Amino acid sequence: MFWKKTGNRFDETHPRLTDEEYLALFDWDVDPEIALKVRQIFADFGNFDPAQLRPDDRLAEDLKLD
After folding, report:
1. Is residue 3 part of a domain?
2. Could you give the CA distance from residue 54 to residue 11 in angstroms, rounded to a whole number?
3. What is the band of 7 on the pLDDT scale with cuts at 50, 70, 90?
4. What's the confidence (pLDDT) of residue 1?
5. 24 contacts 10 by C-beta, under 8 angstroms
6. What is the C-alpha separation between 20 and 17, in angstroms, rounded?
7. How far is CA 66 from the centre of its chain?
8. End-to-end distance of the chain based on CA atoms, in angstroms?
9. CA dist., res. 29 & res. 32, Å (int)
10. C-alpha dihedral sign at 31, 60, 63, 14
11. What are the phi and psi torsion angles at 39 (to 5°)?
12. DSSP assignment, residue 27?
């Protein structure tokens, strides 16, 4: 899959996370299947590597998905 080049700052602040690491970042109980599906949807929509998305990403400010 092709992912957009995001620049060094994004790469530095968004290291690749495994699914387990990603799920551990939630401060509340979350259904893992739903959380990972939403992660994949945002990755597909924004053309990102899903491993670089984090639960606290802001759509407009961090991911430029406005």
Report:
1. no
2. 12
3. low
4. 46
5. no
6. 8
7. 15
8. 23
9. 9
10. negative
11. -55, -45
12. S
Position 33 scores a pLDDT of: 97
pLDDT tens-place string over residues 10-63: 677 788 999 999 999 998 899 999 999 999 998 898 888 899 999 988 877 877
* Angle at the Cα of 11 from the Cα atoms of 37 and 38, rounded to 5 degrees: 10
Specify if 26 maps to a domain. yes
Determine, yes or no, domain membership for 4: no
Which pTM does this prediction carry? 0.76
Tokens of 1: 């899959």
Read off the tokens for 38.
Answer: 């939403």
- The span from the CA of 11 to the CA of 6, in Å, is 7
List the domain range (segments joined by +) for residue 45: 18-66
User: Which tokens go with 58?
Assistant: 């802001």
| Contact (Cβ atoms closer than 8 angstroms) between residue 52 and residue 14 | yes
